[in-house]
Structures are given as C-alpha cells and as structure tokens.
C-alpha cells in the first residue's frame, strides 16, 4: 500500500497501515463512529445488488483492518441479506493486537432490523466467533416466533424507532455504548448510513474508490431524504494499491 497524501509518498507496511487508520477519539469519551464504503468511479454503491464486484483483495484487507480496530461492526439487515454477510474473523496476529490494546479478540457485529426479518440459520449467525447483536424495535421484539428463533443465535436489543420501519441513530449508538461498544464501524447500507449522517452522528468516512464505471441509475452511498445542506469533510489521507484509492475523511464539526 502506498500513501499519496499527506506527503511525501511512502510505502506502508502492516504497522504503517494500522497507524494510518488509528481511531481518532474526537469527543474524548472513547467514542468514534466510522463508516466504510466502496464506490465505483461514477458513484455506484453496488453492482447487481451487491458491493462485492466493486471490491477486491486489497479492499478486503482494508475492511479486515478496520474491523480489527473497532469495538463493534454495525450493519443494516438489508446489507446482511444482500451480501450474504459473514462474521468478523480477525487473524491471530490481529486478535493478539486487539487484546494488547484492551479490546475483545473478535468484534461482534450488530445488525439493525426493524422487523426481525433475518434467517437464524444464515452463516452470519451460525459461523460467528463473537455472538451477534440484533437491534430492533420493541414491537418487533415482542413478535414471539421471530424473537425466539433469533434469541438462540444472537442478543436481541430493543431501541427507539423514529417511525415503525426506521430506528433512531442515537438510540442505536446509545444501546451499543451501554455495552461498552463505543468504537463503531458502520458498513452500510445506505439507509443506515443516511440516518447516522442526518443525525450528525458520523465522525469519519473511509471511502474506497474502485477503478471501474458502472453506469445506469446506481444506488448511492446515502439513502433516505436529501440533506438540507452539504456536510463538509476534511481529507486525512489518500492511499493506493492496484488502481484503487483509499480515502479517509473526518466529518467537519
């Protein structure tokens, strides 16, 4: 991996890459909400309903690193279903690094589902090394059949809903913080990330630009209603390998 900015250009080894993505505690309370997304050069967030064609081995390496630095991975139920999501699995060296830095060996994944429409037999649950969290609304959690099946493979967490099908971003983060999970890595999808952005809860954006064009009417990175005003970002670094660009932005406060 090569760093292009800030200069001068330099090659980054594993330790250098870890340092480049070190978590920034902007609030001083140990918290950080970081999003990771991959887009095509013309702004598509998916190809054929999945982001996988946009990534590659290098993007997956950065994804694994970001997962290795967080307390919890946060993702929407739609993304879990569309991507056939697998659990986080840091390699032994990263697990040792995490333990040396006061983190659990493996970060849990918290999936947001307003309706509990998840398959408890999916590998997301059955292959998890750390017990997942399912964050949902109180009415959905009271649906006995859905809750009973998922409670066998995950911890069910009830939070406030802004409307029946949308959970409040602040309530999601508060529920995670109550469990000591303050360093959050959001991996989408667009609706969940849009909620965090509109609620002014996002601290950082790690954006991978894939060197390909998709065309058509692509799904955008942010879902939901348009922002009333643009959200300024501050560029922290630009890395590159295999034609891909890895951008780290801080949200300007």
The fraction of residues assigned to DSSP E strands is 25-35%
Number of strands: 13
Largest sheet: 11 strands, mixed
Count of individual helical segments:
9
* Radius of gyration from CA coordinates: 18 Å
Strand order within the widest beta sheet: 2-1-12-13-11-3-10-4-5-6-7
The CATH first-level class comes to: Alpha Beta
Helix/strand-derived category reads alpha/beta
- Give the proportion of residues in helices: 25-40%
**Mean pLDDT, as a whole number?**
90
What's the name of the CATH homologous superfamily?
Answer: Dihydrofolate Reductase, subunit A
| CATH third-tier fold name | Dihydrofolate Reductase, subunit A
CATH architecture: 3-Layer(aba) Sandwich
Q: What's the structural domain tally?
A: 1
Outline: globular
What is the helix/strand order? EEHEHEHHEHEHHEEEHEHEEE
What are its keywords?
253 residues; alpha/beta; Dihydrofolate Reductase, subunit A; two-stranded antiparallel sheet; 9 helices
Structure description:
- The protein is α/β, with parallel strands linked by helices and 253 residues long.
- The chain has a single domain (32-39, 51-212, 232-251), classed as Dihydrofolate Reductase, subunit A (3-Layer(aba) Sandwich), CATH 3.40.430.10.
- It has nine helices and 13 strands.
- An eleven-stranded mixed beta sheet has the order 2-1-12-13-11-3-10-4-5-6-7, with helices on both faces. A two-stranded antiparallel ribbon has the order 8-9.
- The radius of gyration is 18 Å and the shape is globular.
- The mean pLDDT is 90.
Task: Summarize the topology.
Blueprint: E1 2-5, E2 10-11, H1 14-20, E3 32-40, H2 57-69, E4 72-76, H3 77-83, H4 92-100, E5 109-112, H5 123-126, E6 133-137, H6 138-141, H7 144-151, E7 155-159, E8 161-163, E9 166-167, H8 169-178, E10 183-186, H9 190-198, E11 204-210, E12 233-241, E13 244-251
Parallel strand pairs: 3-10, 3-11, 4-5, 4-10, 5-6, 6-7
Antiparallel strand pairs: 1-2, 1-12, 8-9, 11-13, 12-13
């Amino acid at each position: 991996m090569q760093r292009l900015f800030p200069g001068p250009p330099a090659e980054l080894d594993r330790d250098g890459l870890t340092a480049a993505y070190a978590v920034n505690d902007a609030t001083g309370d140990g918290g950080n909400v970081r999003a990771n997304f991959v887009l095509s050069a013309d702004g598509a967030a998916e190809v054929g309903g999945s982001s996988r064609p946009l990534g590659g081995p290098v993007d997956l390496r950065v994804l694994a690193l970001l997962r290795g630095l967080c307390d919890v991975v946060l993702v929407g139920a739609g993304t879990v279903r569309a991507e056939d999501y697998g659990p986080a699995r840091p390699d032994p060296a990263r697990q040792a690094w995490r333990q040396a830095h006061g983190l659990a060996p493996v970060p849990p994944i918290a999936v947001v589902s307003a309706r509990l429409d998840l398959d408890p037999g999916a590998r997301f649950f059955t292959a998890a090394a750390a017990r997942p969290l399912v964050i949902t609304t109180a009415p959905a959690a009271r649906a006995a059949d859905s809750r009973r099946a998922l409670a066998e493979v995950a911890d069910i967490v009830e939070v406030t809903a802004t409307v029946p099908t949308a959970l409040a971003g602040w309530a999601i983060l508060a529920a995670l913080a109550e469990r000591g999970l303050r360093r959050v890595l959001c991996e989408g999808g667009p609706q969940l990330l849009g909620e965090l952005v509109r609620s002014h809860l996002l601290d950082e954006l790690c954006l991978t630009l894939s060197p390909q064009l998709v065309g058509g009417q692509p799904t955008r990175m942010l879902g939901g209603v348009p922002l009333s005003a643009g959200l300024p970002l501050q560029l922290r670094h630009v890395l590159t390998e295999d034609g891909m660009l890895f951008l780290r932005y801080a949200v300007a406060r």
